[in-house]
């Protein structure tokens, strides 16, 4: 049964219960989930390195879905989406455009995190007409300082996590201190709230290809971000080890009129640690 079968049916605003859907374009089938009220400009969520649809924090998505049509998508070759993972951020952005157009939208808001934020930048630079508003979290610009070191940090923290039988995100996204550790555990637990219709985890080869694409992005010639005229909200923690926090400040300087939120005593997953403050800020930004 469709969540939107008729007008008197309640609108689903819970990501844990968002229906799994697919749309095929050529030989690629994109997997996505949608929730929230239809109509208006949808918010497309672009996810992070190694992530599937199961990696979005419901405490971020659900408050946004109370007011907006939310669509989260698996990148090509990841989770339930078919095809091969592209080896460049620009090709991933082309896929995102293909997906958005396949659903029949000619204007969207974009909410992005980490790798998703790189994809969002490449998309808006090439297709400015497609984007109304932009949320860039835990991310950095093309050619940004030390982005090409993401792979090294990632492998190091994955090893640390394996030795303690923890989820690598606990190391990669959060500080290993008295505030970070409980925030990490709570975040990882929230990702388990969806029990039905879960995604297959990313395959090793797909993950390695994504890392190559990030390295290429880090070593690439910077894009001219002064061309971005869309209202842009940038957020991060103050101690991001994956995509250094200074890169959020760099983005803020380069995107005219952008807003920057840096959360204290938090890392790459600052928006998840401070979801109770960030979600309302994102809702307010999108509503303006």
UniProtKB/TrEMBL annotation:
- Domain AB hydrolase-1 as annotated: residue spans: 42-272
Say which domain of life the source belongs to.
Bacteria
List the InterPro entries: AB_hydrolase (IPR050471), AB_hydrolase_1 (IPR000073), AB_hydrolase_fold (IPR029058)
Any matching Pfam family: Abhydrolase_1
Keyword annotations of the record:
Hydrolase
Coiled-coil spans are none
Q: Which GO terms describe its molecular function?
A: hydrolase activity
Q: Which SUPFAM superfamilies match?
A: alpha/beta-Hydrolases
The cross-references to PANTHER family, in alphabetical order and at most eight, read:
AB HYDROLASE-1 DOMAIN-CONTAINING PROTEIN, HYDROLASE, ALPHA/BETA FOLD FAMILY PROTEIN
Name of the molecule in the record: Alpha/beta hydrolase
Organism annotation: Phytohabitans rumicis
């Amino acid at each position: 049964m469709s969540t939107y079968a008729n007008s008197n049916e309640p609108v689903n605003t819970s990501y844990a219960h968002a229906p799994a859907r697919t749309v095929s374009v050529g030989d690629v089938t994109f997997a996505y989930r949608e929730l929230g009220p239809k109509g208006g400009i949808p918010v497309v969520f672009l996810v992070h390195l190694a992530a599937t649809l199961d990696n979005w924090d419901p405490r971020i998505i659900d408050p946004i879905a109370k007011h907006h049509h939310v669509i989260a998508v698996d990148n090509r070759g990841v989770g339930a989406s078919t095809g091969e993972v592209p080896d460049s951020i620009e090709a991933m952005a082309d896929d995102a455009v293909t997906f958005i157009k396949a659903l029949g939208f000619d204007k969207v808001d974009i909410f992005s995190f980490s790798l998703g934020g790189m994809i969002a930048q490449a998309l808006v630079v090439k297709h400015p007409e497609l984007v109304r508003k932009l949320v860039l979290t835990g991310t950095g610009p093309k050619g940004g300082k030390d982005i090409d070191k993401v792979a090294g940090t990632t492998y190091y923290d994955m090893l640390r996590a394996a030795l303690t039988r923890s989820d690598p995100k606990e190391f990669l996204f959060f500080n290993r201190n008295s505030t970070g550790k409980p925030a990490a555990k709570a975040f990882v637990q929230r990702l388990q709230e969806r029990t039905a219709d879960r995604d297959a985890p990313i395959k090793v080869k797909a993950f390695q290809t994504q890392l190559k694409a990030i390295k290429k992005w880090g070593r690439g010639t910077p894009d001219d971000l002064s061309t971005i005229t869309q209202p842009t909200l940038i957020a991060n923690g103050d101690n991001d080890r994956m995509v250094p926090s200074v890169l959020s400040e760099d983005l803020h300087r380069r995107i005219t009129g952008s807003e920057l939120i840096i959360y204290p005593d938090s890392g790459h997953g600052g928006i998840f640690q401070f979801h109770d403050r960030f979600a309302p800020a994102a809702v307010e930004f999108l509503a303006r």
